Amino acid sequence: MKPVNPSSAASTASAVPGAASPRSHSGRRAARSPGAWLVHLVLLLAALVTLFPIYMGLLNSLKTEGEMMNNILALPRHLELANYVGAFHKTNFMRSLGNTAYVAAISLTGIIGCASLAGYKLSRTPGKLSGFLFFLFVMSTLIPFHSVMITLTKIAKTLAVQGSATGLGLIYIGLGVALAIFMYHGFVKTIPRDLDEAAVIDGCGELRLFAVVMFPLLLPITATIAILNLLWVWNDFLLPLLMLTDYKSYTLLLSTNMLFGQYGNNDWSAILSSLILAMLPVILFYLLLQRYIMKGIAEGAIKG
To answer: CA 197, 177, 50, 62 torsion: positive or negative?
Structure first.
């Protein structure tokens, strides 16, 4: 008996009127599933709710003060780009941007450097001590910032780091390293130990093993940690307000806060324009790293 070719049988079945392959039939059935439509509808509504404040801010930043007070939902009659020029000068945007970028650079460098080493070492070192230290790091993430902010402010003043952008960056490292260790710890578990053993056989020391072999493999979770902490540092208002005392070292949000008048005389055109300007760098950073973010979360945090 002549054997039947599966590909020819499939093509013959598809040529018969009314016949359809099981794969295409199940695909159409899944596409018509009410559950799938419901999920897409919920996600669409969530996206609209999230993007609506940004849309309103962008819309009204392009209006005059009179148009904004008359109807905040109406489209602008003319694009008032002068609002952005005014906000750029009133907030001293370049200086504030440099301060924010400086604090973010110190924070991200310290968090990624310390957490990657600690997460790798704790994950690769079995034992009760390693487990206990990891437990302490995880438990510290459950402590709310508001319960320690007064004590933290007094310690910063005692150590003479209050009012310094460098000191603010160091405080961010201490506050953010615990969650990053948790994420690195989970991601390292997905990397086979055979790579470590092969590198040791080739003569790699422990630091060289981490720097040359392990850290490049941690790129997805590193990108995830970088964008999460950048969003936190860039958008944080309370901690810089407590720590920075000189307006020359103010971050973007603190400089924008200076536009609010003491007696309600707020320059809303400049406020909204400065907020839109403050969004742009972090949005660009996210777009550059977005392909690594979901991969890092899925393979690191969930398996941790």
So the answer is: negative
Q: Could you give all domains of the chain from N- to C-terminal order, each with its CATH number?
A: 98-302 (1.10.3720.10)
CA 13 to chain centre: 50
pLDDT band of residue 302 (cuts 50, 70, 90) is: very low
Query: How many angstroms separate the CA atoms of 176 and 140, rounded?
Result: 10
- pLDDT tens digits, one per residue of 128-178: 999 999 999 999 999 899 899 999 999 998 988 888 899 999 999 999 999
Neighbours of 233 (CB within 10 A): 26
pLDDT band at 15 (very low <50, low <70, confident <90, very high): very low
CA 287/CA 291 separation, integer angstroms: 8
Give the pLDDT confidence score for residue 13 in this predicted structure: 46
The single-letter code of the amino acid at 90 is K
Is-contact 230 112, C-beta < 8 A? no
Reported pTM: 0.78
CA angle 38–41–43, rounded 5-degree value: 110
